[in-house]
Amino acid sequence: MDQREGWIWFDGEFKPWKDAKIHVLTHGLHYASSVFEGERAYGGEIFKSREHTERLIRSGKTLDFTIPWSVEQIEEAKREVLAKNNLVDAYVRPVAWRGSEELSVPARNNTVHLAIAAWVWPSYFSVEEKLKGIRLEWSKWKRPSPETIPSSAKAAGLYMICTLSKDAAMANGYADALMLDYRGYVAEATGANVFFIKGRDITTPTPDCFLNGITRQTLIDLAKRNGFTVTERHMMPEELSQFDECFLTGTAAEVTPVSEIGDYKFTPADGCRTLIDAYSAEVQPKRAAAE
Ligand code: PMP
């Protein structure tokens, strides 16, 4: 990943991709004082760009640091990153972290840095291929209580158990893992939220100890506009047998149907298809319509 050609926006200037480096004694590396975003540009425009930038700044505040750039400056920087790298359909990764002035647990005197990279990360599958669904394994790790860790932030520290869960699932031949929370309720996958469909009713776990994804919020709105009812509530894993379809949502995952979670089987069908189509239409730039 570090050996590509291209340009990375780094603290206000462009650095060649291979030179965008930090010191090994960076606080963010040792103590996870780091927050990031995952965004997608479609047709040259980042979908819900401002929401992502606002979440980035909010995540930093949750970790008790201020990113030294405004929403407008970050918006402009993201546009510049796409232009400088000639990208139209791309994944965009802003990351902010505490620097290397001091290395011990307290970090208030360390500079906060911001970098923004972007690269091509297509949705590889056709709708037909997607509708086969992916297989998920139950993770042995539980999403922690919001009293244990600030779980509404998109912060590096929250991803340690995601990596452990996803690597274990992939080693066992699954595409991803589904995590329960500290109470035993169904929570989310390692980088995406989860939804269940029965007829025209959609149920999704209440995001009270995991990320309330921007795609999740978009999907809830789209589902309602497409005639589904949407219920957010705590869900026990045993309940999953009553649902016909299941799908994940996330910036990278978009809408990804699921065929299996442990012993529970789902058959992606009209519900998933309707929502995949609605999401694809929604993410397209609205320039033409606005003109
Ligand atoms: N949960 C986790 C753990 C994630 O990493 C992501 C991806 N950012 C999501 C949910 C979905 O969030 P979004 O729809 O904002 O990409």
UniProtKB/TrEMBL annotation:
Key words, A-Z: Amino-acid biosynthesis, Aminotransferase, Branched-chain amino acid biosynthesis, Pyridoxal phosphate, Transferase
Recorded family membership: Belongs to the class-IV pyridoxal-phosphate-dependent aminotransferase family.
Catalytic EC class: transferase
Protein name: Branched-chain-amino-acid aminotransferase
Pfam family name, one: Aminotran_4
The keyword Magnesium is annotated on this UniProt entry: no
Cofactors named for this entry: pyridoxal 5'-phosphate
